[in-house]
Amino acid sequence: MTIKVLIVDDQMMVREGFSVLLGAQPDIEVVGEAVNGREAVRKVAELRPDVVLMDIRMPELNGLEATREIVAADADAKVLVLTTFDLDEYVYQALRAGASGFLLKDASASQLAEGVRVVAEGEALLAPTVTKRLILEFSRLGAPRAPSQVGDLTERETEVLVLVARGRSNSEIAAHLVVAESTVKTHVSRILVKLGLRDRTQAAVFAYEAGLVTPGG
């Protein structure tokens, strides 16, 4: 099944570069490009891409606002935000806006393609480097906590939630807990239902806000 991708960036060279790299993949098709957030919102409604590759700093409507509008219009939309180390202050805001994950702008062709595949499959893409900085940002902001809902989770579900928040994939969680990957998927599904969350990325946000993950933990 071909994954349809919309590339959103105000720099033509970046758009063209990503388009060439992704277009070379047999299972990925670039169905369109947008030069700003406003055009991105319009093209998502028109083209219905599986994944939106979204830059943050753009004219007219930035990537954060565009992501918020896209997800508000379609709760199943998957937005993969492009970030660099000097944009880490936006990571928390983008997650709250509904982004499905993050990819560093200097990612290799294989990392870019794999990132698109991961997000298309409904997994959260939080690179370890981004995750660490995200935790620090939550600590700095003193984000609101939601301890009451944590009590709805079993001990094992809480353990899985923490690993999800640390950016671990299902296979990595399975190896860590010495259980089948299908068991991990079941735990993740139950966590999302119990907490009323739409995906793993929202689960990660919840874990940070509930204080389950800390800068030193």
What's a quick, concise take on this entry?
The protein has 217 residues and is of the alpha/beta class. It is built from 11 helices and 5 strands. The protein folds into 2 domains: 3-125, Response regulator (Rossmann fold), CATH 3.40.50.2300; 143-209, Winged helix-like DNA-binding domain superfamily/Winged helix DNA-binding domain (Arc Repressor Mutant, subunit A).
What labels describe this entry?
five-stranded parallel beta sheet; alpha/beta; 11 helices; 217 residues; single chain; 12% strand; Rossmann fold; Arc Repressor Mutant, subunit A
Structure, described:
The chain has 217 residues and is α/β, with parallel strands linked by helices. It has 2 domains: 3-125, Rossmann fold (3-Layer(aba) Sandwich); 143-209, Arc Repressor Mutant, subunit A, CATH 1.10.10.10. The chain has 11 helices and 5 strands. Helix 2 packs parallel to helix 3 (63-73). The mean pLDDT is 83.
SSE layout and pairing:
Layout: E1 3-8, H1 12-23, E2 28-34, H2 37-47, E3 51-54, H3 63-73, E4 79-83, H4 91-97, E5 101-104, H5 109-120, H6 128-141, H7 147-150, H8 155-165, H9 170-177, H10 181-195, H11 200-209
Parallel strand pairs: 1-2, 1-3, 3-4, 4-5
Helix pairs in contact: 2-3, 3-4, 8-10, 8-11, 9-10
